[in-house]
Amino acid sequence: MLDLRVWPGVEADGSVPTNTPGKARDNGKEQMQRLAKLVKKHRNGQINKVDWLDRLTFREIEVINEREKKASDYLYLMIEFPEVTMDGMPYSIVYYEKDGDEVFQHRSQSDVVKLPDYEILQENLVEAKHHKLARSLRSGGNTRELKPTSTVRDALNTILGYPPTTALSTEEQDLIWKYRFYLSSQKKALTKFVKCINWKVAGEERQALEMLALWAPPDPEDALELLGPAFTHPAIRRYAISRLNQAPDDDLMLYLLQLVQALKYEDFESIKAAYQVMLKEKEDKLEPRNWGSEKLDKSERLEKTEKVEKSERLDRDIRNSDSTSTPVTSSESESQLSTSQEPLMDLASFLITRACQNSMLANYFYWYLSIECEDQADPAISAKQDTRVKEMYATVMNMFNTTLKLGNSIWQKRRAFLQRQKTFIEQLVSLVKAVARESGNRKKKTDRLRALLTDPDPTMKFPFSGFEPIPFPLDPEICIKGIVSQKASLFKSALMPSKLTFMTMGNSEYIAIFKHGDDLRQDQLILQTIALMDKLLRRENLDLKLTPYRVLATSTKHGFVQFIESTTVAEVLASEGSILNFFRKHHPSETGPYGVVPEVMDTYVRSCAGYCIITYVLGVGDRHLDNLLLTASGKLFHIDFGYILGRDPKPLPPPMKLSKEMVEAMGGVGSEHYHEFRKQCYTAFLHLRRHANLILNLFSLMVDASVPDIALEPDKAVKKVQDKLRLDLSDEEAVHYVHNLLDLSVTAVMAVLVEQLHKFAQYWRK
């Protein structure tokens, strides 16, 4: 009798040695094979036979075999061959019988039984009925006077504390709806309330719009959430725009980049219709009046009066009607929310209106739109995007251009400036391309650049050394009138960016870097975010001496970067030996800490803390001492944001870029200044966490932008920033968390090794 191992689903291997052995190999752990060998020896007479002992032994062997079979994942087949004795020798007989060689298919797995589920992806009728009953007017009862208990109030506060990315459960939505009148006095609760509404149900939609009119108006920064892709109802989006209209131009400037991206979530047909109306008005304005114009004016006034009366009747009907079944149209929705002093607008009209009234907004709005129009013109990019998006951006650009053209003299002047800016940059691109075609080293290319700036090529026909003043696209508050050719130079890099010195109207100099062949949109986003964070921290009376220099992408292939007079930390260490020696050289003090003016040391400590926290939150990677810059006044700042949201080309990067040399400049880990640095880090992190909703809302509007590191994983981009803010921790736990991050960053061994390798690579490049 043999116990043979079965190999289901495996083709038999008849070779020696075989891959499908019937007898398992003796691995020393299982007793089954060892005992089988002993049984064979006993059968062959190599072990003495003792009847009483054999009975006990074979019974125990069977128990052991059964136990090991059950414990293993293998299948076993027990075979017993009949024996005959001939001439005193036992023989096992192997014989064949009719149909005895039929193959029996053993199934290692059971059949998968497929049952059709006709209700899958269908509406759950029970939940739908519950939702309808919970939101109906009749079951509302006295919800207007309903007050939550302490337990319910805690639950509501927990829900209101959720970040904007959190989806509300059905129970949480019902709770918000039930206590909507109680929550209507809290402006932060509006976005959570809007998420609870099923806008496809007419009665629920009508009640929601009525509540919207009663709700405490949210801050403009909170209204940004309502412009995201999740909110498509026109009344909600226009209400959000009415709140944004309360924001001053300075704040709107910080959100403008994201608002241009939010145009992708607008109703394209309404934008197109508005443009057609504008073209009709343009034709009417240019058309000369005839002798019957007075009668025409009278008929127009009569028509407008009838429209106003009709709108007022419609508003009265809406207020007096019982909200049960009649669907709510877009115009009816807006009439419930608008006032005569503040008409509701779509996002495109709002941005155009505000841009026409402010030169700074007009400048940046034009270039943000321009790059989107160019982006859509790129076949490689536009093939992946909706053709309607391309048409929409072109339509908005035409609307903006037409509005400026039909406006007053100031608006027309702004339009002329923008056209001249475009011409200037086109000519500058042609010049840079001509320099790039020049053969030779960097010195020869620099000479060619200066020669072309002094005496342009006849094909360019643009006087770079002196031209009619125009607002500089990078900073429209500065008017430039020429480029100082002898101060132009090229940087040491593969693309050789141009360092240009512009002469301003006040006869002062403004230095900027023009990069060609580089997409600056990712740097533009990060610098805009740093500027926003700097403003938020300053509102909390926390000045971290940040340097949010300006970046403007004028195309997908070129743009401007503000030049800040500074030195890389790597150069400082190479020339001065330490950061402290650099400060002593520029701002020595006999009475100051470490021989440095106290203000400079304070600036250095604060800027280090600010950039440690900000680059950590934004997940900025590829940090080394060549992209950390230091000014003579003590400001440290970062450049080159090619890796963000956790991406890093280096292995095992530390959470923050905090090298040994940077800490030594503060006096070491035990110094008073290093403790102040840690304190500033804690404070900055806590303040940014309190403004997490604004930061997350802005990143949410950028998920469909053509920013490389966001486009890699657009669905995870916002979550990456949210995870860095650790909103799940209390303030005390967050401080402890940052404390551990700083300790980990200071003692990171891999960062030191990578820095040495980078220094070695830079040496061989030179």
TrEMBL record:
UniProt key word Transferase: yes
Region (Disordered): 297-340
A GO molecular-function annotation: ATP binding
Alphabetical keyword list: ATP-binding, Kinase, Nucleotide-binding, Transferase
Pfam families: PI3_PI4_kinase, PI3K_C2, PI3Ka
PROSITE patterns: PI3_4_KINASE_1 (PS00915), PI3_4_KINASE_2 (PS00916), PI3_4_KINASE_3 (PS50290), PIK_HELICAL (PS51545)
SMART domains per the UniProt record, alphabetical: PI3Ka, PI3Kc
Name assigned to this protein: Phosphatidylinositol 3-kinase catalytic subunit type 3
Species for this entry: Ooceraea biroi (Clonal raider ant)
Lineage of source species: Eukaryota, Metazoa, Ecdysozoa, Arthropoda, Hexapoda
